[in-house]
Write a structure and sequence with these properties.
The protein has 321 residues and is α/β, with parallel strands linked by helices. It has ten helices and ten strands. Strands 5-4-3-6-7-10 form a six-stranded mixed beta sheet, with helices on both faces. It is globular.
Length: 321
């Protein structure tokens, strides 16, 4: 029997890029990844362990601060104007908003084993999108690279899900181009694509949202950390940090040729001090991100390019299945 075009399997699918069909096929896996309030507690090393707040909260009114109020709900403008602390009150919305922030910048197109970090991020985002839709949450997404920025406002239903999956597989976001300088027409010389996207996320996110950021967080600076801190004041935050094993530790001592597709370099990993410094830099970056999450009560999960994304999310979120 002759197979039609739809039966053709691209060998690069789920390794260096994703397709809509592969993301649609993840709906069964997502059934074992509930994002229900009280069911999830982060178990990742260094993560702040707290049950998620649950449904979204909509601003209602401001009243004078009372002992026991959450300091994160302080209204700083009213406090500054009156000279006395005031806190914001929120009323529960019918559905919580789940926002997926997906980084597809050039550093995410890297792996020595498993699949590109970008692929793992897209797969994890798709499963979280399916899970949010299954439980009736409103789903939104911000997907970006150096050249493109896709913003999907939170909506409820299968159309929101399909739109998110379609954008995750959009070919323009998977075109790897050499010579990117990290700037485009949508950013200024002083604003990186990462910071520009986090700034947009702050404008989109409503208090009480569950925000999942999927990235390797390369280039995260003080401005980006400040954006995260502001978002964490009124939202539940999960940072899913992707890395390749080579980024954590150099390969065994020897000479290696490394290429980014257009440029080649020769690397000698025999020097013991080089290997030590390399590991220390990665450990320092990990510790810095961990401390940021602890300081602002954000959940931190770490996934490798060799990890099964479903198993990694289940393990990291402490989901009992």
């Amino acid at each position: 029997m002759r197979q039609g075009p739809s039966a053709t399997v691209d060998p690069d699918d789920n390794v260096v890029r994703v397709s809509l069909s592969s993301l649609l096929a993840l709906h069964h896996a997502a059934e074992s990844l509930p994002l229900k309030p009280g069911r999830i507690r982060s178990q990742s090393s260094g993560a702040y362990q707290s049950a998620f707040k649950g449904r979204g909260m909509e601003f209602d009114e401001v009243r004078p601060y009372m002992p026991g109020d959450d300091a994160r709900t302080l209204d700083w403008r009213v406090t500054a104007r009156t000279g006395k602390p005031h806190t914001k009150l929120f009323r529960e919305e019918r559905e919580r908003a789940v926002l997926l922030w997906v980084d597809l910048r050039s550093p995410m197109f890297f792996a020595t084993r498993g699949a590109f970090k970008a692929v793992r991020a897209a797969q994890a985002a798709a499963m979280l999108a399916w899970s949010a839709t299954h439980q009736g949450d409103r789903l939104g997404a911000l997907i970006f690279n150096e050249d493109e920025h896709v913003e999907l406002r939170p909506r409820r239903g299968k159309q929101a899900l399909l739109g998110t999956l379609q954008q995750l597989a959009m070919p323009q976001l998977w075109q790897m181009r050499s010579g990117r300088n990290g700037r485009n027409a949508q950013t200024t010389p002083d604003v990186s694509p990462l910071n520009a996207s986090l700034s947009r996320l702050r404008r989109v996110a409503q208090p009480g949202s569950l925000i999942v950021l999927l990235s390797d967080f390369s280039g995260l600076d003080e401005q980006g950390s400040a954006h995260l801190a502001q978002l964490a004041r009124h939202n539940d935050m999960i940072l899913v940090d992707f890395h390749d094993p080579l980024e954590a530790e150099l390969p065994p001592p020897g000479r290696y040729r490394v290429s980014d597709g257009s440029n080649d370099i020769n690397m000698d990993t025999a020097a013991r001090d080089l290997r030590a410094r390399y590991q220390q830099r990665f450990a320092a970056r990990q510790a810095e991100l961990q401390q940021l999450c602890q300081r602002h009560h954000m959940n931190l999960l770490r996934l490798s390019t060799v990890d099964n994304p479903l198993a990694g999310l289940q393990r990291g979120l402490g989901v009992r299945t």
